[in-house]
Design goal:
There is one protein chain. The protein is α/β, with parallel strands linked by helices. It folds into 2 domains: 143 residues, Aspartate Aminotransferase, domain 1, CATH 3.90.1150.10; 274 residues, 3-Layer(aba) Sandwich (Aspartate Aminotransferase, domain 2). Helix content is 44%, strand content 15%. The strands form 3 sheets. Strands 4-10-9-8-7-5-6 form a 7-stranded mixed beta sheet, with helices on both faces. The chain has a 4-stranded mixed beta sheet with strand order 1-2-3-13. Helix 12 links the parallel strand 8 and strand 9. Helix 16 packs across helix 17. The longest helix is centred in the C-terminal third of the chain and has 24 residues. Bound molecules: pyridoxal-5'-phosphate. The site of pyridoxal-5'-phosphate has 16 residues, from helix 6.
Length: 459
């Protein structure tokens, strides 16, 4: 690798001169210089100075089997030598997407048996949007095209992804979203439950917002509801147990399709292959990406339920949609090996039976009591820490988001990578974390909280 011939300073200068980063204030970043991560192994990432950092975010919610897996590199190498690329247009196929589709049908909920590939979660959601609208056209209901989503949802950053998502800042810059997408309240009890309202009742009320949106438009105008099982980028917002079954009941009542965006939750994170299984719901589409290859290759898979797939097949006619890299043979080879490793090492069961419960307990016992922490919550190996100025009143530090960034910066300086979203710290580590790794993370987070508290109290 030639990067070793460059100093950190040189790499930062070249980065600043030529590289536009995602979701970045370039003026700010170019002043400070980027953090250059050069290598990684197991649960750790290393920067160009050799600093070891425990990766609490699995890259960007994706490196579920951890770093440094030779088997994935070997799978990619072997596939590249044999057939680096061929398309799956024009009635062609290649072996690895064929076999991956079979594997995905095996691990997905029973009624989900078809797969449409892309290279990112955003692309997969674009496919999902087009597919559900196409479905209703095939069913003779051209006007049933409205999608109900939620405020603060994240469904990717293409025009379709941004439009489906409910992030205000993204919508402002989009300046003209895909029409006929509406956003209802999110199921975020910590901030939105009324005084004295139980979690259960709040969950039903939040689900009720979906019904209101259906009734407002008319059920004959609503194609689908889309949601992340747990709102990830929005702050690991875990809905009350009453929420999803009620949303599903409402969708069924009005014949509205259910689209589940499992780009973060897919492939073991909640202790089942898919959160749909954890929640016991039966979505018509399941968007997946990220951990499908543990991030070693860009690949997404929209899992399509039998209802939509059978209409598509029975009614026929071309679905005018697809990507050059749909079913990329190398990415699919890597995904197959990744799923094999997850299975062989029993990572999904481990999250469900061991590390998930241990993680929940550790956050409750070691983090929740800190003065800066309003609430901790987790599901499987996915967690959130709410940063507050006052535990009792839930008052936040000003300006909004600044305290969480302070905690994050101290965490990184102390060898712990986690993310700040608004006033929430979020964690989504590789599924290879053990009890010891969880303890190590809690040590480092506690220390970061102490340092941040001392700092914030001086401001
Ligand atoms: C729930 C969800 N959907 C979609 C996406 C978009 O995926 P990608 O960045 O691969 O386009 C993300 C990315 O974080 C996500 O969290």
């Amino acid at each position: 690798m030639t990067y070793q011939n460059y100093s950190l300073k040189q790499l930062q200068q070249i980065d600043a001169a030529h590289h536009l980063h995602p979701f970045t204030d370039h003026k700010e970043m170019r002043g400070a210089g980027s953090r250059i991560i050069t290598h990684a192994n197991g649960p750790f990432i290393y920067d160009s100075e050799g600093t070891e950092i425990l990766d609490g975010m699995a890259g960007l919610w994706c490196v579920n089997i951890g770093y440094g897996r030779d088997e994935l590199a070997e799978a990619a190498y072997a596939q590249m030598k044999e057939l680096p690329y061929y398309n799956s247009f024009f009635k062609c196929s290649t072996p690895t997407p064929v076999l991956l589709s079979k594997k995905l049908a095996e691990i997905a909920p029973k009624h989900v048996n078809q797969v449409f590939y892309g290279s990112s979660g955003s692309e997969a959601n674009d496919t999902a949007l087009r597919l559900v609208r196409h479905y209703w056209v095939l069913e003779g209901q051209q006007e049933k095209n409205r999608i109900i989503s939620r405020k603060m949802a994240y469904h990717g950053s293409t025009v379709a992804g941004t439009s489906l998502g409910g992030m205000d800042g993204m919508h402002k810059q989009l300046n003209g979203a895909v029409p006929n997408i509406v956003h209802v309240m999110m199921p975020y009890a910590y901030e939105l439950a009324l005084p004295g309202e139980s979690d259960h009742d709040f969950g039903l009320r939040a689900a009720g917002a979906v019904e209101e949106a259906i009734l407002e438009a008319g059920a004959d105008k609503v194609a689908a509801f889309i949601g992340e099982p747990v709102m990830g980028a929005g702050g690991v917002k875990i809905p009350p147990a009453s929420y999803w079954p009620e949303v599903q009941r409402i969708c069924r009542k009005y014949d509205v399709l259910l689209m589940l965006d499992e780009v973060i939750t897919g492939y073991g994170r909640t202790g089942e292959w898919f959160a749909a299984q954890t929640l016991g719901i039966e979505p018509d589409t399941i968007t997946t990406a990220k951990a499908l290859t543990s991030g070693y290759q860009p690949l997404s898979a929209l899992l399509v339920g039998d209802r939509i797939a059978s209409t598509l097949v029975e009614k026929g006619g071309e679905f005018n949609h697809g990507y050059t890299y749909s079913g990329h043979p190398v990415a699919c080879a890597v995904a197959l090996k990744n799923l094999e490793i997850i299975e062989r090492e029993g990572l999904v069961d481990r999250v469900r039976n061991d590390t998930g419960p241990y993680f929940a307990k550790a956050l409750q016992e070691r983090i929740a009591g800190h003065d800066l922490v309003g609430e901790v919550r987790s599901i499987g190996l996915m967690g959130a820490i709410e940063i507050v100025k006052d535990k009792a009143t839930k008052e936040r530090f000003l300006p909004a988001g600044s305290a969480a960034v302070t905690v994050r910066d101290y965490a990184i300086a102390n060898g712990m990578m986690l993310r700040a979203t608004g006033d929430t710290m979020i964690l989504s580590p590789p599924l290879i974390w053990t009890r010891d790794t969880i303890d190590m993370a809690c040590d480092r987070i506690s220390k970061a909280l102490d340092l941040a508290q001392a700092d914030l109290s001086k401001r």
